[in-house]
Write a structure and sequence with these properties.
single chain, 353 residues, alpha+beta, Phosphorylase Kinase, domain 1, Aminoglycoside 3'-phosphotransferase, Chain: A, domain 2, 2 domains, five-stranded antiparallel β-sheet, two-stranded antiparallel sheet, 41% helix, globular
Amino acid sequence: MAKQESVDRDLVDLDRLGEWMQAQRLPSGPFLNQRLLTGGTQNILLYFERGDRAFVLRRPPKHLRASSNRVMCREARVLQALAGSNVPHPGYIAHCEDESVLGAAFFLMEPVDGFNPVNGLPELHRGDAALRRRMGESHIEALATLGSLDYKELGLAEFGKPDGYLQRQPGRWRGELESYAALDGYDNTSLPYESRIYQWLADHIPEDFQPGIIHGDCHLANTLFNYHNGELAALIDWEMSTIGDPLLDLGWVMATSDDGDGFSTASIEPRDGFPSIAEMVAHYSKHSHRNLSSLQWYAVLACYKLGAILEGTHARACAGKADKAIGEKLHQLTLGLFRRAHHWIEHGIPTSE
């Protein structure tokens, strides 16, 4: 996580935060070594030390969306539930649903000592392909472990709606794409293969599944790795987590990874050493008892879902409500995701056989 400028008092009023922390019986005293961190999203991440303890505060950006506070509370809840599990994650400390304290819901978590590979690999990892391979493997192992947890035993029985989860997915993301038509200047006819992908997904929904916790956005940009080896230090940015089918997390990694075809959603250099998509699938199967016979569907769905989400920024940019350059960049990723989905429909997903 990189250093940035100091936090705006309108976003984090330290006097009010201090009063709230005292009420939670957390350490008191001056706020030391404050610095904003980059975390791959627009959410605010503030590192500080107080009373010989380090904290990271996470809150939504200044301009809230309708779901911002609810999503922040859900993220805090899943981190709280994961305490003591074998899934690498930031440790939960406390959260606040009272928006009057800082103007939005927020939570405190333990800092993670690790690096984000999308922001550049340390010299050790740049020079060792075996370490890079281990990075990919430990990422996959964490997702397999997450998918094996009993969400009901962890107190997350009401965290999602697993009944009909798979059946809802194609229409849910088709509806998201269709909603962009209301934005002036956006032309949704520029999406190749969309109708084919949607219809294939609707026609090939797996008959059953085993519900579990899903991270929801588990590509490498949302990871931190140990500086001294290839082990995953934490999965971060849990704001899209829910109870669904954990195989969608595996599909998500497949959709976003480079498989030697020149496409990925994030650039990591050097890339050699990281497992191929087929190798990641094989590694997942060694660490999970889940049935992978319908994995093609999850991989195609992941491409479709992520493309639908990214296209939203492009649509808002066309309407003058988002940065035009970023919107075009994300539109190009959507095009790549839809091309990959169509290719996998026609030719199948990569396998190690």
